[in-house]
Amino acid sequence: MKIIVKQSPTELGEAAGKDAAERINKVIAEKDQANVILATGTSQFETLNYLVEQKNIDWNKVVIFHLDEYIGLPISAPASFRKYLQERFIDKVAPLKAVHLVDGETVNAKGECTRLGKLISEHPIDVALVGIGENGHLAFNDPPADFDTPEPYIVVDLDEECRKQQFNEGWFAFVNDVPKQAISMSINQVMKSKVIICSVPGKRKAVAVRNCLEKEICNQYPASILRKHNNCTYYLDNESASLLQPIK
């Protein structure tokens, strides 16, 4: 586990983006293709901005997956993660080798999980960009998260704190508009990634950061499991790291 603390969200995002770009280029140089997981949400703004500005990444050798999507939310909705990635990343880089987005509008969510699970099993993940929710969730695995399922993607219920976070960040007009279910990459699938870059800016994430980095590793603090990964780097800013004990 490696923790890097930057002054601001912008510096955090740029550092995480630089790390991701270097690792993606290294994988492409080694095997001519990189399989990458992208996260969404406000924590990823600066990281994705940095990546799309890089002209030395051969994006047509990159396969993209993403972490989660609301069930029943159309891609045209402002809060759609597919819309987020399309507008903030996919449309701004050279054509990718492939993009496998989560279809939350499907009438068969379990079937969509099976489809995605087959695809990701054929594309072992080289680099995963993730964040931590205010309730400590990893992807949309809210507490108590399922640490045991071997399924790569699962249908999950979103807890009240998670739904309030989405509303408070401005993605929805009313908290009741936030869907109650989503399709999420599972904890075990995230942990299969060879490299994990976890970006967590902002004061409102400070409690979650403290819980996930200093308390016991358990499913009440889902992202605490990242401490068991052998190549995970946490990028924090001064505010998100403000409750951590000083490193001795």
Give the topology.
Blueprint: E1 2-6, H1 9-31, E2 34-38, H2 45-53, E3 62-66, E4 68-70, H3 81-88, E5 98-100, H4 109-121, E6 127-130, E7 153-157, H5 160-168, E8 181-185, H6 187-191, E9 195-200, H7 206-214, E10 232-237
Parallel strand pairs: 1-10, 2-3, 2-6, 3-5, 6-9, 9-10
Antiparallel strand pairs: 4-8, 7-8
Structure description:
There is one protein chain. By secondary structure, the chain is of the alpha/beta class. The chain has one domain: 3-Layer(aba) Sandwich (Rossmann fold), CATH 3.40.50.1360. Helices cover 31% and strands 19% of the residues. The protein has helices at residues 9-31, 45-53, 81-88, 109-121, 160-168, 187-191, 206-214, and strands at 2-6, 34-38, 62-66, 68-70, 98-100, 127-130, 153-157, 181-185, 195-200, 232-237. Helix 1 (9-31) packs across helix 2. The two termini are 15 Å apart.
Low-confidence stretches: none
CATH class: Alpha Beta
Work out the helix count.
7
Percentage of residues assigned to helices: 25-40%
Shape: globular
Number of domains: 1
State the order of secondary-structure elements, H for helix, E for strand: EHEHEEHEHEEHEHEHE
Global mean pLDDT: 96
- Tell me the span between the first and last alpha carbons: 15 Å
Total strand count, please?
A: 10
Short description:
It is built from 7 helices and 10 strands. With 248 residues, it is α/β, with parallel strands linked by helices.
Which key terms come to mind for this protein?
248 residues; alpha/beta; Rossmann fold; seven-stranded parallel beta sheet; three-stranded antiparallel beta sheet; 7 helices; 31% helix
